Amino acid sequence: MPVTDVQHDLDNLTLAITADFAAPVERIWQVYADPRQLEKVWGPPTHPATVVDHDLTPGGRVTYYMTGPEGDKHAGYWLVTAVDEPRSFSFDDGFADLDFNPNPALPVSKNVYTFTAHNGGTRATYVGRYASAEALQQVLDMGIVEGATSAINQIDDLVAS
Fold first, then answer.
1. How far apart are CA 38 and CA 31, in angstroms?
2. Which segments constitute the Activator of Hsp90 ATPase homologue 1/2-like C-terminal domain (predicted)?
3. Which of 23, 65, 127, 147 is the most buried (most CB within 10 A)?
4. What residue segments make up the domains of the chain, in order of their start?
């Protein structure tokens, strides 16, 4: 399994996930840069994603929804704030209604995804920062660690295919 470490810190308002992949940095970058690949790994296997809009450039927006086992849909969006291809990108990640309007009742996180060469493959660090400890606790209670871990663990199969 690629995920090697998960740390949440309510004092610093962060959730950090580390994963190691047996593929070069450029290949891992492609997973996030290509909406058809991204939808194979964004969301846990029980809630596959459909990427609707995908603009991975500073100021760009990515919209998606995940479909649950009962056909229920859950939408979200990214607002891309920085891109350093293929090493990193930053974005605000929020929940949305099915028209992709932000849902102000749920937390928004500021994320930095970083990819570095490591042991012949790639070490990915996924760091999300929340506005408050309550916001971080809310997503922890929603199962973000389990969901993100199962989502990230799908990347190995994708890059091996």
1. 5
2. 22-159
3. 65
4. 3-160
Record the pTM.
0.95
Q: How far apart are CA 158 and CA 141, in angstroms?
A: 29
Q: 3-class DSSP state for residue 51?
A: strand
C-alpha span between 157 and 161 (Å, rounded): 6
Segments of the chain scoring below 70 in pLDDT: none
Query: May I ask the CATH class of domain 3-160?
Result: alpha beta
DSSP labels for 57-125?
A: STT-EEEEEEE-TTS-EEEEEEEEEEEETTTEEEEEEEEE-TT--B-TTS--EEEEEEEEEETTEEEEE
Residue 72 contacts by C-beta under 8 Å, 6 or more apart in sequence?
A: none
* Closest to 44 measured CA to CA, from 139, 152, 157, 141: 152
> pLDDT by residue (tens digit) across 30-57?
999 999 999 999 999 999 999 999 999 9
The tokens describing 38, both together, are: 């991204």
- pLDDT computed for residue 62 by the predictor: 98
Cβ-contact 18, 5 below 8 angstroms: yes
In this predicted model, what pLDDT tens digit does every residue of 6-21 receive, in sequence order?
999 999 999 999 999 9
